[in-house]
Design goal:
It is built from 28 helices and no strands. It has helices spanning 3-12, 18-41, 45-64, 71-84, 90-114, 118-134, 140-161, 171-193, 197-218, 229-258, 268-284, 291-297, 303-327, 335-352, 360-382, 405-415, 421-443, 450-458, 463-490, 494-511, 516-532, 541-561, 571-595, 601-624, 635-657, 668-690, 702-710, 718-749.
């Protein structure tokens, strides 16, 4: 049909003029609702909305009472309470709020009583700082509340510094607590009304990170002879760290809401989706054969392209599932994945029909890979109805929080040693704040408490994070001051500036975990606009910039000079942990080949520990790249080991993905002996690294063991062949691991200066 004919036919088939008007409005309404759903599903939207409401109410109260000066302590109280907010159901959040308000009250009381006595104030500041930082040993929730308490104590100093001589003594502390309590109650109410929103967002984040992992894994299946597999494996290992972090956060979110009574029936579907994500992660992490060997053998075939296309479609399915979870909409699995699966089966059948004896072992691995992708496809398709997913026989989630005072005290005692990273950070923070307090009294006691505040935000547990935060803090402050200077002239009305203060506060909380430079600029603007309500905005420009520079310098000096945590010094311990965790994972996997697949708590802990160790190594190496040259000399060897350890984890994941009970076979003794020897070899290598010794020499029959595992009899069943093949791959990986570990061990044993 010609173009003109199609146009004419379209005109004839067009409905009357009134119908298009209705149809044009319906998509618009639907699109508007969809936009609202997407906005609501944003992870920071609820957080930002709560901050907006709290700050707006604070501003409204100050303007209603015709006392703009109230805005400063109320705003600071809201900010401190929002910084102390931890994820929990409403009962837990209410308990946390009461603890937070108690800590805030004690901090404000101490500041009010000791503020006129600098010496006693310095002593209490040191004791409080060290104690509050050490509370991080009890868990992330306590660390968050402790950090916010420290920040509120400095806010109390700032508020008192602004008090005029006629002001009431307890006015500022009470206003700070009022702002904190107001936001806290709003947070509790929000948590009670929107119970499932954090769960939806955390589980959706897991699937988004999984989608990126699938996409990166697909890049390994390009049949190129010059493919840089190591570089792509490194990117895959780094993304694995993000997946693991998202899974850990989702587990904590679910754990807080399920409770001890397992009364979260509405959360049952999300719990099943979480366990499904764990299984998908194990399957997509699997490696069934060295990819370069597959590329060489099947260079003239399209089978690897078929695998790559299927992985990309499964990546798209994970993204679609993440969006469906976030928007609370039905998930529909695309038929394109099924067609891609059929195309892969056809390619495999064609290769099998060639009867090439050189491909026999490769085709077995390729068959195992195709079966794994089949299972991934079926599991993603089953996510269309989360409630119908099969639940785990053991759905227990490990709670790492202390459950008694004795357990909490034991954790604190374990960290009270100079070898503890937390102890070192607490000591550095204490010395840095004391130095900042002394400097502000020596240089300019008025408005000098921004030095302490900058030090608290910039001083991080390691040098790399501190260096990054320092640059972001200084650049963000300069950006905020420049924007404030322009906005003061453009919008001189105080009412408009008050609105800007609220919006800047919201922007700070929306960006503080992702774009800290922008967040710093926003909080600087908020401070300028708030202080300008009492006519002190312009006078804050230079002190704010100077104090930021001074506080950043003090924080950087403390991290560099006081028991510095150079990542290279503990790299051998991190690497050793990856090996010992992999050994424990291997033992758990092989135990399940005797009992059959059971994703019980012990197995899931071993699997998670292995992935957590892999993620910790990736994070350590990233921080190491930010350290001075002499302290990152083994970074290259560390990244080499990361690619090797992630390859090892891939071989282990393939074993875990195909778990099922083995039938009696003549090779059972070989499998048991080989798995025990491989696990022992990994543990001995980990021990040598911890003791900074050379890697142990391999036994003389290790090569013979690898050959025996590779030579599976023809009559052997597929499961036995797969287990032998994966154990052989692990055995072949040991020499490279020993070489890389030996290099790291030699570097760790050499002195490296400060």
């Amino acid at each position: 049909m010609s173009l003109l004919a199609r146009l004419l036919r379209g005109q004839r088939d067009a409905p009357s003029n009134r119908q298009p008007a209705k149809r044009s409005r319906m998509p618009t309404t639907s699109s508007f609702r969809q936009s609202l759903r997407r906005l609501w599903a944003l992870e920071k939207f609820g957080y930002s909305l709560r901050v907006f409401v709290a700050l707006s109410l604070s501003m409204g109260v100050s303007w209603y009472l015709a006392e703009p000066a109230l805005m400063i302590p109320l705003f600071l109280g809201v900010i401190a309470s929002a910084l102390a907010e931890t994820d929990d159901r409403w009962q837990g959040r209410l308990s946390a709020l009461l603890v937070t308000l108690a800590c805030f009250s004690l901090a404000s009381l101490a500041v009010e009583l000791l503020f006129p006595y600098p010496l006693w104030f310095a002593v209490s500041l040191a004791v409080a700082t060290f104690g509050l930082v050490m509370l991080g040993a009890l868990g992330e929730r306590y660390a968050t509340i402790a950090q916010a308490t420290l920040i509120l104590s400095i806010y109390s100093m700032i508020a008192m510094d602004q008090r005029d001589s006629a002001g009431l003594a307890w006015r500022e502390p009470l206003l700070l607590l009022a702002g904190a309590a107001g936001y806290g109650l709003l947070s509790v109410l929000w948590s009670a009304v929107f119970v499932q929103q954090p769960v939806q967002q955390s589980v959706a984040r897991v699937y988004r990170e999984l989608a990126r992992y699938f996409r990166l894994k697909a890049t390994l299946f390009e049949p190129l002879r010059e493919l840089d597999v190591e570089d792509r494996r490194l990117a895959l290992a780094q993304q694995n760290g993000r997946v693991v972090a998202a899974m850990n956060l989702a587990k904590e979110t679910l754990l807080h809401r399920l409770g001890n009574a397992r009364d979260g029936r509405a959360l049952g579907g999300y719990l099943k989706l979480y366990f499904l994500a764990q299984d998908l992660h194990e399957r997509v992490s699997s490696s069934h054969y060295p990819y370069q060997a597959l590329a060489e053998a099947f260079f003239h075939s399209d089978v690897l392209f078929r695998c790559q296309r299927l992985l990309r479609l499964q990546s798209d399915a994970c993204l679609a599932l993440a969006e469906a979870i976030a928007l609370r909409q039905p998930f529909r699995h695309s038929d394109a994945s099924r067609r891609a699966m059929d195309d892969l089966d056809a390619s495999f059948a064609y290769l099998s029909a060639q009867h090439n004896p050189q491909w026999r072992g490769l085709l077995r691995s390729l068959r195992a890979l195709a079966d794994n992708l089949h299972t991934v496809h079926n599991e993603l398709a089953s996510a269309c109805d989360p409630d119908a997913l099969a639940g785990e026989s053991d759905s227990t989630l490990l709670d790492r929080q202390p459950h008694s005072i004795a357990e909490a005290w034991q954790r604190l005692r374990e960290q009270l040693t100079p070898t503890s990273l937390l102890f070192r950070h607490a000591l550095r923070m204490t010395v840095a704040l004391l130095a900042g307090y002394a400097v502000l009294h020596a240089i300019h006691p008025e408005q000098g408490y921004w030095v302490l505040l900058t030090t608290v935000f910039v001083c991080q547990p390691n040098y790399g994070a501190t260096r990054t935060r320092l640059v972001q803090r200084i650049s963000g402050t300069a950006l905020g001051l420049a924007a404030g200077w322009a906005l003061f002239d453009l919008f001189p009305a105080q009412a408009v500036q008050a609105v800007f203060a609220v919006l800047a506060g919201v922007l700070f909380f929306a960006t503080r975990s992702s774009r800290y430079t922008l967040a710093t600029a926003a909080i600087t603007l908020m401070v300028l606009f708030c202080f300008n309500q009492v006519g002190d905005g312009y006078g804050l420009f230079w002190p704010r910039l100077f104090d930021t520079l001074l506080g950043s310098l003090i924080a950087a000096a403390a991290v560099f000079a006081i028991l510095p945590d150079w990542q290279g010094r503990r790299l051998n311990q991190i690497v050793a942990n990856t090996l010992s965790s992999s050994s424990a994972y291997l033992r758990q996997i092989m135990a399940q080949y005797e009992t059959g697949k059971r994703d019980d708590l012990a197995y899931r802990i071993a699997r998670r520990n292995a992935h957590n160790a892999d993620a910790a190594l990736s994070s350590t190496l990233s921080n190491m790249l930010l350290e001075p040259g002499p302290f990152r000399r083994e970074a290259e060897a560390g990244f080499r080991f990361l690619t090797l350890s992630h390859t090892l984890l891939g071989y282990l994941s393939a074993l875990g993905a195909h778990r099922e009970s083995l039938t009696d076979d003549a090779s059972d003794a070989l499998l048991e002996n080989a798995s025990n020897r491989l696990a022992d070899a990994l543990e001995s290598l980990a021990l040598a690294l911890r003791q900074r010794q050379s890697a142990p020499q391999p036994p003389g029959d290790e090569e013979e063991l690898a050959r025996r595992l590779e030579c599976a009899p023809e009559e052997q069943d597929d499961v036995h062949r797969l287990v032998q093949n994966q154990l052989a791959l692990i055995c072949r990986q040991l020499p490279a691991l020993r070489e890389a570990a030996d290099r790291l061990g030699r570097h760790a044993a050499e002195p490296s200066g400060n």
